Amino acid sequence: MRSAFVRALCDTARKNDKIMLLTGDLGYRVLEPFAEEFPDRFINMGVAEQNLVTVAAGLAASGMVPVVYSIATFMTMRPFEQLRNDVGLQNANVKVVGTGAGFAYSKAGPTHHALEDIALMRSIPSMRIFIPGDTMQMSQAVHAMLSLEGPVYLRIERDPETVPGMALPAFRDGRGFRLTKGKGVAIIFTGTHLALAKKVADRVGKNSVKPTLCILPTVAPLDVTLLKRLAVDHPVFAVIEEHNTAGGLADAVAEAVSEFPVLPRVLRFGTAKSGLSTGGYRELMDASGLNERWISLRITRYVRT
Amino acid sequence: MKKTNRFQVISRYARSVRCTTVDISFRAGVGHIGSALSIADILTVLYFDTMNVSRVNVSKDTRDRFILSKGHAAAALYAVLYHKRLIGKPQLTTFAADSGGLCEHPELGVPGIEMTTGSLGHGMAYGCGLAIGLRKRGIPARVYVLVSDGECGEGSVWESAMFASRMRLDNLTVVVDDNGWQCFGRTREITHLAPFAGKWQSFGWHVITTDGHNLAELRLAMRRARRVKGKPAVVIARTETGHGVSFLKNRLAAHYQVLSRTEYKQAIRELSKI
Fold first, then answer.
1. Residue A287 exposure: Cα atoms within 13 Å on the Cβ side
2. Do A300 and A200 contact (CB within 8 A), yes or no?
3. Any alpha helices (H) in chain B, and if so which ranges?
4. CA separation (Å) from A219 to A90, A193, B93?
């Protein structure tokens, strides 16, 4: 996913000489293609995230189009005030890229697990949030974010598993997509979780009605129109994300549907406090209950009651 | 003859800026008057002598840019923007009004305001970004950022200081309002800046020190800063909080004090004589 990001960034930078890439001293062996092709537009800002973000805001004010890059924890937490004030409040044309989100840096431990970044970025009103589901959506999301004015947070998650026979639709700013047609339960996910969501859908479908599978690669602005249409014949939404449920996609969906005339129930599946702070990616996901067995079991039990 | 007249003009503006600062603060019933008066002369020199900014070019790329990183002193900035005719009387009178208008801290969107500030420690990085961008686009405009001494307690100030010298930003000048006070007491008791000039030098800056209320010295200092090549320059201006008002000057209370009508009248009387 990171390579797709850099390729797309280089592609757009060839057409727009205002695009710059600023990194917080991260991205070794990832960002080199950009740095080598555009050395005068690449700055390693060092380990100084507050400076990184506000310098980008100043660059945007001078007419450049800066992209800032770091691991999602460091990109969103340390410089949050700078993102809120200097980028958000001023609607600065800064693109914020947080890589290794969720448990991607599994064995690096909790300081590297970005489980709050969506919540933080959601709290900035002018900040769009793009979480592409595969390398093709990544490329499209990068083009989209660099062709619009205003702040965007691009969350780069762990590489997806391929799902034979299933391809994601093209990314479009603000749009969610129905991937399969079902009823009763709408399984909604974001990011690179097609494989997990499909396995959950298959298991639920065996025990009860076949669910509808949806992806929301844009978390802000949320595709409320799609949610309204789903609410008509899906009394249960099951939202899956590699992020704390507090403030993440599940909360965004729950907030949106709370004003619908027909109110779906929202089951929320995200990362949770568990006994495991470090370990393999699968182990950390399992400890949070983010696997097809637990999610489908909970959905099935809920639907039966 | 011409030079003397120019200086007289600047001196008259300085008096007007100080008086307007106190005037709008009194009418709005807000504090921070001490902080605003400590920078009034610096702003006068910047806007009426140093910087290339006016009604003609305020929206153009070619203008010099000023960032009040010490955002709580906004009254002084609005005063100078008013006397520079970048904002009019109707807008000036909205300072800290209940119905909205000019905020107690500067907001982007007001003519002449380059950045929304209020949280300390952000202005220098923004100035660095502007400086780099202007240089990349081949625009010879300069960037000025005013910070306070207490503000230099923020780590972000030093992140930006390291960065600016690394990037050789000689189109960036930082001015420090070194008035010796911060919210809870004297700066030297709370934020150990000394050796202050030495710190900036060790971060790769060219250091100029000046009396922050001597208009002639200030003009010279800013001109010297402009001539520095290959590194950014910092003008450390020794200032006095509440300068020009006997019951405000060099007192912690000046940071917070809301003037009564009697105090306001006395302040204007004293400021009109300088």
1. 15
2. no
3. 2-28, 33-45, 74-83, 89-92, 123-136, 155-166, 187-190, 196-202, 215-227, 261-271
4. 21, 14, 42
A61 shares contact with chain B (CB less than 8 Å): yes
CB A227 within 8 A of CB A212: no
User: A-contacting residues of B 108-127, CB under 8 Å?
Assistant: 108, 114-116, 118-119, 121-122, 125-127
Q: Which two tokens stand for residue B251?
A: 């007192």
10-residue mean pLDDT series, chain A (305 residues): 98 98 94 98 97 98 98 98 98 98 95 97 98 98 98 98 95 98 96 98 92 98 98 97 97 97 96 89 96 96 89
Q: Give the three-class secondary structure for B182.
A: strand
* Contact at CB, B136 and A64, closer than 8 angstroms: yes
Structure tokens at B234: 């910092």
d(CA B128, CA B133): 9
As for the ipTM of the complex, it is 0.96
pLDDT of residue B2: 56
Predicted pLDDT at A43:
98
Residues A98/A155, Cβ–Cβ less than 8 Å: yes
State whether residue B162 sits within 8 Å of chain A by CB.
yes
Q: How many CB atoms lie within 10 A of CB B116?
A: 21
What is the spatial distance between Cα B267 and Cα B274, in angstroms, rounded to a whole number? Answer: 11
Q: Which of A129, A181, A140, A95 is nearest to A1 (CA)?
A: A140
| Best mutation target, B64, B107, B110, B115, to test chain A (most A CBs within 10 A) | B115
User: Residue B88, exposed/middle/buried by CB under 10 A (0-12, 13-18, 19+)?
Assistant: exposed
Cβ of residue B82 closer than 8 Å to a chain A Cβ: no
User: Hey, is A13 helix, strand or coil?
Assistant: helix
Q: Do the chains contact at A90 and B115, CB–CB below 8 Å? A: yes
DSSP secondary structure letters along B55-73? TTTTTSTTS-EEEESSGGG
Q: What is the dihedral of CA B219, B221, B222, B223, to 10 degrees?
A: 80
SS3 call for A98: strand
What 8-state DSSP symbol labels residue A253?
H
Whether the CA torsion B167, B172, B177, B183 is positive or negative: it is: negative
Answer yes or no: are the C-beta atoms of B193 and B187 closer than 8 Å: yes
Question: For tokens 């008509």, what's the residue?
Answer: A232
Report whether pLDDT(B3) > 80.
no
Q: Is-contact A227 A178, C-beta < 8 A?
A: no
A48, A63, A86: residue with CB nearest B126? A86
Q: Which of A19, A41, A62, A82 to mutate to test the interface with B (most CBs of B within 10 A)?
A: A62
Contact B129 A85 (CB under 8 A): no
**Tokens 């909080």 sit on residue:** B241
Question: Mind listing the pLDDT tens digit for each residue in B115-168?
Answer: 999 999 999 999 999 999 999 999 999 999 999 999 999 999 999 999 999 999
